[in-house]
Design brief:
Blueprint (H helix, E strand, L loop, with lengths): L4 H11 L2 E6 L5 E4 L2 E2 L12 H22 L6 H14 L1 H6 L1 H7 L3 H7 L5 E2 L2 E2 L1 H15 L7 E3 L12 E5 L2 E5 L8 E3 L3
Antiparallel strand pairs: 1-2, 2-3, 4-5, 6-9, 7-8
C-alpha cells in the first residue's frame, strides 16, 4: 500500500515548507517538509522546494515501510494514510511501542484510531498544531472503513467540557474525546 495524495497533502500541510534549517517543536534540527536532519547530513544553505520534495518522498517511503511491517491487520487507505502521517511525525520506534499499534493489531480499530488523539504533546507540552494534525489523522482513519470495522459511538452531550472534537465521517457526525473513554462500537454505513 502507498500513501495517497490526500495523505501526502496532510504531511505537507502539517509540516509546512522551510528552505532553511530550523528546530521543530520537539527540538530536532529539521529542513524542508519536516525532514529531520541526520548527523551525516548538512544543509548550510537554503534548499530548493524540489530538493525538499525528494527528501519528503524518501522519508514517506520509510514511514510506509514501517507501517506495512508493523501493522498486522488489513487497513483502509485512510487508516494507512493516518498511520503513515503519524509514523512520519513521531517515528517508527514510537509507533512500534504505542498502545495505538497494540489496539490496532488486536483488531480494535476504533480504539486504535482514538489513540491518535493522545499524541498531541511536543517536548512535554500540549501543542495546538499537533492536536490539529491528530484530528486530521482521525478524520482520515474514520472515513472509508472497510465493511465490518467499527468506529466509536457518540459520546455523551457533556463530553464537550472534556475537550470533545466533532468530525465528519461518511456524511454523519462522529464524536471523539481527546482523552479516550470506554466506547461502544457502532457500524459505519458504507
Amino acid at each position: 500500500m502507498q500513501l495517497s495524495a490526500q495523505g501526502l497533502d496532510l504531511i505537507k500541510r502539517s509540516e509546512g515548507f522551510r528552505r532553511r534549517q530550523y528546530l521543530d517543536a520537539a527540538g530536532y534540527e529539521t529542513i524542508g517538509y519536516g525532514h529531520k536532519i541526520a548527523a551525516t547530513e548538512s544543509f548550510p544553505e537554503e534548499i530548493a522546494e524540489a530538493e525538499a520534495e525528494d527528501l519528503l518522498m524518501s522519508d514517506v517511503k520509510r514511514a510506509e515501510q514501517a507501517v506495512s511491517r508493523l501493522a498486522h491487520v488489513s487497513l483502509s487507505q485512510g487508516q494507512f494514510d493516518a498511520l503513515v502521517d503519524f509514523c512520519f511525525n513521531v517515528g517508527a520506534g514510537r509507533l512500534a511501542a504505542s498502545t495505538l499499534l497494540k489496539e490496532l493489531n488486536a483488531g480494535r480499530y476504533a480504539q486504535a484510531g482514538l489513540q491518535l488523539l493522545r499524541w498531541d504533546y511536543a517536548a512535554g507540552q500540549p501543542n495546538a498544531a499537533l492536536k490539529t494534525r491528530r484530528t486530521a489523522e482521525l478524520q482520515l482513519w474514520t472515513c472509508g472503513n472497510p465493511a465490518g470495522q467499527t468506529a466509536p459511538a457518540a459520546l455523551p452531550a457533556n463530553a464537550a467540557a472534556s475537550g470533545e472534537m466533532r468530525l465528519k465521517a461518511d456524511g454523519g457526525e462522529l464524536k471523539a474525546a481527546s482523552s479516550p473513554t470506554p466506547l461502544t462500537p457502532i457500524k459505519i454505513a458504507p
